[in-house]
Amino acid sequence: xxxxxxxxxxxxxxxxxxxxxxxxxxxxxxxxxxxxxxxxxxxxxxxxxxxxxxxxxxxxxxxxxxxxxxxxxxxxxxxxxxxxxxxxxxxxxxxxxxxxxxxxxxxxxxxxxxxxxxxxxxxxxxxxxxxxxxxxxxxxxxxxxxxxxxxxxxxxxxxxxxxxxxxxxxxxxxxxxxxxxxxxxxxxxxxxxxxxxxxxxxxxxxxxxxxxxxxxxxxxxxxxxxxxxxxxxxxxxxxxxxxxxxxxxxxxxxxxxxxxxxxxxxxx
Length: 268
Fold this sequence. Notes:
The chain has helices at residues 33-48, 79-83, 90-103, 120-125, 154-162, 164-173, 179-184, 197-209, 214-225, 230-245, 248-259; strands spanning 2-3, 9-14, 17-22, 53-58, 62-64, 109-113, 116-118, 130-134, 138-140, 177-178, 190-192. The protein is α/β, with parallel strands linked by helices. It folds into 2 domains: 2-209, Alpha-Beta Complex (2-enoyl-CoA Hydratase, Chain A, domain 1), CATH 3.90.226; 214-259, no CATH class. The chain starts with a strand and ends in a 9-residue tail after the last helix.
């Protein structure tokens, strides 16, 4: 297991699965400046590496409690300058580019959600293509509690996952959403015992990592499809299918089908 420079993110490799662990349990893995730097470093390594699936989880009793509002490394904001357009906000400088990097990864992403996932941490949890949550975990659109509005993409993805009425209620009332309810609403994929969150996520990630390169194409296809009309999505399917069709894994898949044997995909 490798620590990033500040020790706030741990990167581990289990075969073809890369595990990124948020590692600041004393503040429930809240995202401060040092963690931001470490996430950037981790994504650099993930993008340059050969991993075939990414698991994101949190160390300790929380997945991520959102932004670290008491971060000693946080610089005071010049809100007046931001309002005048003379300075960029934290969202523009780091959060938005980082969440776009996660969206654009070409490997499947599994989030293993333990404990609280609040604010930006809830947004991070929802970036998983597959979301595994412990029974005692919960989600919180915490922004309104401190006079803010949702960010890090939650106002875009939540209505698409659970509908406008539920998304609006979660954001305006800022009430806890138990994982069991999130499962009933279709916001997460699987609900497991707390002790089994990481192992269940790893079992799923290993299965995805053994899959073809097309899995990365599929995630891109569905993310793009959230914005597209039908005609645009047909064009996207044609473009992305050509990428899958030129892969070594497609050749192996067809060969294995003809030879009546399991395919041995290599992610290429």
